[in-house]
Amino acid sequence: MSAIIMDGKGLADEMQVEMFKTVEGLKEKGITPGLVVLLVGENPASQTYVKNKEKRAVALGFNSLVKRLPESISEKELVNEIEFYNQNPDFHGILVQLPLPNHIDAETILNTIDPSKDVDGFHPVNMGKLLIGQPDMIPCTPYGIMKLLARYKIDIAGKNAVIIGRSNIVGKPMAQLLLMEHATVTIAHSKTANLAELAKTADILVVAIGRGHFVTKEFIKPGAVVIDVGMNRDQNGKLIGDVASAEVAEVAGYLTPVPKGVGPMTITMLLYQTIKNAEKQVKSF
User: Fold this and answer.
1) Catalytic (active-site) positions
2) Is the C or the N end of the chain the one with fewer CB within 10 Å?
3) CATH entry 2.40.30.10 includes domain 140-262
4) Annotated binding residue at 165?
5) Is 167 annotated as a binding residue?
6) CATH topology of domain 31-116
7) Could you tell me if 265 and 148 are in contact, meaning their C-beta atoms sit under 8 angstroms apart?
8) Model confidence over 49-84: pLDDT tens digits?
9) Quick check: pTM over 0.85?
């Protein structure tokens, strides 16, 4: 057996074409989707990630702004920046790039973003809506994974899903999205006993643990769908996932690669939700 590789980049490219058409239609009605990214400090990984977001947004014809702010900015000053864009109708999405400097409380900052412009989906109001089954803004990585599962016609209802990782960014919202599609969901983590045995019960295994090549073929049920959310660097600086992909591909039925798997879908869903917000503005006229 050799797993079918789930092409996240290909799906992202397909969606980009459709989103471009939508943006053109919005512009004809006088609305240009606007996204502002607030980038604090000089974190190299954040700089790269924001550059990729900006490139994709510009290609779609967005009103795209990256506001670069000094590492020394105070929490109050950053709150004021967010409040300005909360009130600015030209911007339909606000994103504060994490991590933030240690002197700034990330929770305070994320809670300041207007929930209706929270295209990352991290505001407690949006997380609460997701929890009660009435999602609005959805965390982008889990949302992208659901799009990928749909693209490959993966039947979710009645399946056992195991998620390794319990973060608010991936693990918890991923569990809720799978529950909404009638999977039976288990969230596992670093304190889970017999992790490999539990993972091997999964028809759908989502791995977001942040440890390079942690999941080996011993974790995999034959034919399982394996979603690798990990982004790590090996000793040679090569980008690798949380899944030992070469050996897991021999057992799994489907597998997302790293790179070009989940990553491109995360940025795509951020832009997708910004466009959806812009469409709401048209409907409110």
Assistant:
1) 53, 97, 120
2) C
3) no
4) yes
5) yes
6) Rossmann fold (3.40.50)
7) yes
8) 899 999 999 999 999 999 999 999 999 999 999 999
9) yes
